[in-house]
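A protein record pairs a chain with a discrete description of its three-dimensional fold. The following entry can be read in just this way:
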Amino acid sequence: MKETGRRGGAHTLLRRWDAFCDGVTAMLFVVGALFMFAMVVTRYGFAWSDPSVEIIVRYLMIWGTFIGVSAGVRYGVNIRFTLIEHLLGDAGKRVLRTFAHLVTLRIALALAISGYTLAEETQMFNEVMPTALRWPVWPFHAAICAGGVLLSVQVIRSIVDVWRADADLTADAADGGTI
């Protein structure tokens, strides 16, 4: 018999996507830390430093941040109005969380659009890093667009979770809640 609901194919696909995003975020931060460590060793140990490394680390951290910010919504550790939520019943909590998610969705969509525009402009003018690497800048600016899109997806998932019939509105992230 085909499984549906929370353990069905779509849920499994979303869990795998979440694991992939978490892994990419972790990899970006680890690689950035390794690059930064190598830069410190070469700068202070050998009196040599290439400014390209600093730029690479900066953009790895930017990519990691913009991809990882969606995890805050997924795990429910984003900024919420918990004091007000404690005063409300289930219906009020659903409305307040939905309103907060809709505001976040608007910001996420604005980030996605502006990130796309920024990447498109830097690609159009063929901007490159002002270092020895001479890499194009637009892939690094695309992090804003990617982060906005991923955040939008997570916010929409959170809105759906809030309005699920079996949603536990009292669960916190520490308790394993999905909201």
Notes: The chain has five helices and no strands. The mean pLDDT is 79. The chain has one domain: 7-175. The longest helix spans residues 9-46.
